[in-house]
Amino acid sequence: MSNQNDHHEASQKPPGRKEMSRRQFLTYTLGGATAYMVSGAVLPMIRFAVDPILHKGSKGNFIKVVEVSKITNEPQEFSFELQQQDGWYSSTATLSAWIRKNDKGEIVALSPVCKHLGCTIGWNNDKGYPDEYHCPCHGARYTKDGKNLAVAPKPLDEYTVKVDNGWIYLGQIVPNKHVS
Ligand code: FES
């Protein structure tokens, strides 16, 4: 009888310091893993939420991004901010473009959104494939003009470009017109 009571009391005891820290450890570990997985799923969703705004953005909306004099034949990444107004809610999204001058002297501004599942590509960031865009998520690769070489089903999209008074302005994102 006393054994049963002892057992009952033991199970009712508040958890000791060691047990708490183990529980905390599990909580933090599971919480961290969940946050990591959720961020992996949510970031592309945010990307896809912002993307349509750019795709359907009004034709007159251009954002001043960088001076033409800074553009070379080598792609460089430039960031800029897009103000969004959705009814009463306004927000700012930071976007980026890989901009360069092609062999014809045209300014080409590529979207950094991978055409596989929406991760962010980088230029010359895979030593095994120099002078290409590479996506770290599943290994998509693109040429300097954005032509898809592996994994991705389509070329990288591009921004519409306007040059005015020595500055580059970027507008809507449209399908890539510089590759066949
Ligand atoms: S999202 Fe870029 S390779 Fe899959």
From TrEMBL:
Membrane spanning stretches: 25-46
Alphabetized Pfam families for the sequence: Rieske
Domain Rieske intervals: 101-170
EC annotation from Swiss-Prot or TrEMBL: 1.10.2.-
Coiled-coil intervals, chain numbering: none
Gene Ontology molecular functions: oxidoreductase activity
Keywords: 2Fe-2S, Disulfide bond, Iron, Iron-sulfur, Membrane, Metal-binding, Oxidoreductase, Transmembrane, Transmembrane helix
CDD domains xrefs: Rieske
Gene3D superfamilies tied to this protein: Rieske [2Fe-2S] iron-sulphur domain
Domain of life: Bacteria
Family matches, as InterPro entries: Rieske_2Fe-2S, Rieske_2Fe-2S_sf, Rieske_Fe-S_prot, TAT_signal
Chain intervals for the UniProt region annotation (Disordered): 1-22
Protein name: Menaquinol-cytochrome c reductase iron-sulfur subunit
Species for this entry: Paenibacillus sediminis
Lineage summary: Bacteria, Bacillati, Bacillota, Bacilli, Bacillales
